[in-house]
Design brief:
Radius of gyration: 16 Å
Structural class: alpha+beta
Number of helices: 3
Order of helices and strands: EEEEHEEEHEEEEEEHEE
Helix content: 10-25%
Distance between the termini: 27 Å
């Protein structure tokens, strides 16, 4: 069991069936340079119970990465499910089916992989980046992210700098970054000094996008 700051569960989420909702309420915001984001608040009902199940069931691991001349610890825990792997909860299979049905006509293909990140407290974070490993370096694509647990700020800004947009995501919120977003914009989850509970993000991606 991973040691984490206690999560304050939403009273509205108690005894709620764990399942994704209709995507009819998704709202799209156009950015610049062909990028866009879709947002749907509370898309995954029963999100806090799903957080608890994933926190216990997933084989979380820490990673280290080369940063210039030194090796640093990645400030969050990770788990990756390739397209042949069984997802850790049936609710994620349901979510993927709905996302595929809604976005595959526009994307031209289904989502294939699922990456999970566990932010244990405000010290865990992810720096400014775009998912540009693989085809997304040169092609338009989509990344769908479900946020569970305590809300954390997801920031987006034009690549190279500019005014940042802020979305506080948690408790089952869905955000989809599409078009040129991974190439022309960056996103980050910054550290915070204020007390904050743990958060899990689930990122669905097409084949060849990381």
């Amino acid at each position: 069991m991973v040691a984490m700051t206690a999560l304050q569960f939403s009273l509205l989420d108690v005894d709620t069936e764990i399942k994704p909702q209709s995507l009819d309420l998704v709202r799209r915001s156009r950015l610049s340079d062909g990028a866009w984001i879709d947002l749907c608040r509370g898309w995954m009902s029963g999100a806090d119970e799903l957080f608890d199940r994933l926190a216990h069931r997933v084989s979380w691991h820490a990673e280290q990465r080369q940063m210039y001349e030194r090796v640093v610890s990645v400030p969050r825990l990770l788990s990756f499910y390739d397209e042949q792997d069984v997802l850790p909860d049936p609710a994620l299979d349901d979510a993927k089916r709905l996302l595929d049905a809604h976005y595959a006509p526009e994307l031209g293909e289904p989502f294939r992989t699922a990456g999970l990140c566990l932010y244990r407290d405000g010290r865990d974070s992810v720096a400014w980046h775009g998912d540009t490993i693989g085809r997304s370096r040169t092609e338009d694509t989509m990344v769908a992210i479900i946020s569970l647990g305590a809300p954390r700020a997801l920031l987006l800004r034009p690549r190279g700098g500019g005014r940042a947009l802020r979305h506080n995501l948690g408790h089952g919120d869905l955000i989809v970054m599409g078009g040129s977003c991974q190439r022309t914009w960056e996103h980050a989850v910054p550290k915070t000094a204020r007390p904050v509970g743990p958060r899990i993000s689930i990122q669905f991606r097409p084949r060849g996008v990381r």
